[in-house]
Amino acid sequence: MKIIKVVLITIAFMCFMPSAFADVTVFIDGTEVVFDEQPPVIINDRAFVPMRKIFEELGAYVDWIAETSTVYASKRFQNVTLTVGVEEYYVNEDMYILDAPAVIMNSRALVPVRVVAESLGADVLWDGANQRVMITNNHGDYLIEDRYIDYWECADDGTAILTGRVAYPEIISDDVVSNAFNEFFLGDAEETVDNRIIEYLESAKSSYSYALKNNTEYFPYMTERSFDITYNKDNIISIVFADSNFAGGFHPSYEMSAVTYNMLTGERIDCTDIIDADSNDIRKTVLSKFSELIYSDPDKFFSDAEDCLDDALSELKWYLADDGVHFFLNPYEIAPYSTGVIEIIY
Known about the structure:
The protein has three domains: 11-136, 2-Layer Sandwich (Copper Amine Oxidase, Chain A, domain 1); 140-235 and 247-253, 2-Layer Sandwich (Heat Shock Protein 90); 270-346, Heat-shock cognate protein, ATPase (Actin, Chain A, domain 4), CATH 3.90.640.20. With 346 residues, it is of the alpha+beta class. 24% of the residues lie in helices and 38% in strands. It is globular. A six-stranded mixed β-sheet has the order 14-15-16-17-18-19, covered by helices on one side. Strands 5-6-7-8-9 form a five-stranded antiparallel β-sheet, with helices on one face. Strands 2-1-13-12 form a four-stranded mixed β-sheet, with helices on one face.
């Protein structure tokens, strides 16, 4: 885990004034973003925007930690960590350097708009003549927005003992297939919330009671589902889901799953619909490629990983991306948690 250096914000810094007061407008996919009391400003020839507003307009989920003036924003599999007054920021585990750090203005945290958009995979164009920021999401054939369900359960004394978030996709369209798609994934998200509560709540209560009795620190159980769209063209949508659940211990559990749909028919696609081979030949090729990974770096795998491959590949897990069909195995199937999800490209 990266450790972020936090600096104190002086009164002079908090009162930092923009170098220009010209009106700055921001457009996302052609629609103007309406800001509240604090509009975008120009500071040293750079467009700064309120962090929470622009992150949320781009479909990210935002957490603000006032004690450290740090924002955490997540969208799909991108997690952005940025602290006011600090030049470094992180996208997942990768560190980047800001041209100008975020600032506080009128009790709002402002950040260079280019950093916010590009960290979430959007394109940014600055129209200096008209003082406009043009942001374009790279969404593919279908516009798919991120939706979230948050939930939490508390002990009798009000302490949060189980918290969670489930992200799910929604297609912005009104055709029959898209509506069925949206109805299914909303229902699936709601069912996931119910299942997580059933699975973890009683254990969380017991752990909290134990911590109270023994005067030890309690860490709430946390569950999260995120997703990413790995393919969105040719009337095919491929979606990867990641479930992370922390219920005590040294690390959370982690499991990935995926589905691919034909958006003309609404039917789920099998890998044989994409790869010109029958299921047995595909399975043999996939097994061979995973075997090559094991032989190339055996220390990353269980000692009996080769023997486990048949069972692990009894049901192929895959998704479609621009570079091909990805087959994957989850932690503990043939390797420890530290190795992570293992993938090969067909």
